[in-house]
Design goal:
100 residues; mainly alpha; 2 domains; rod-shaped
């Protein structure tokens, strides 16, 4: 059941048929003015409301902190390799190396 039907605030779709001139008889979706057939499901969510929001962790200070940690681990790994602390057949960290 749609949330707007459950709480009693259901509205009717405002779309009008070109052929008959009559208003659609379906219920509007959520906070939209139209039903799913007339584009109510296409409402674009913004910011952290969107299902694919990736803004968290992508601010400049967070990116700089991640970069500094990557540089630290890369340098530590190089030092361990020079001192012979890594196993002879161990694999080093994969991927692009951070710029120092």
């Amino acid at each position: 059941m749609l949330p707007n039907v459950a709480n009693g605030s259901a509205r009717r779709c405002v779309a009008v048929a070109r052929s008959t001139g009559e208003q659609c008889k379906k219920l509007a979706v959520g906070s939209c003015r139209t039903c799913r057939s007339h584009g109510g499901h296409k409402r674009v969510l913004r910011g952290d409301q969107h299902w694919n929001y990736q803004g968290a962790g992508h601010t400049l200070p967070e990116r700089q902190e991640r970069h500094e940690m990557a540089v630290f681990f890369h340098e530590t790994e190089n030092l361990m390799a020079k001192l012979g602390m890594l196993a002879p057949r161990s694999t080093r960290t994969r991927g692009r190396k951070p710029k120092v």
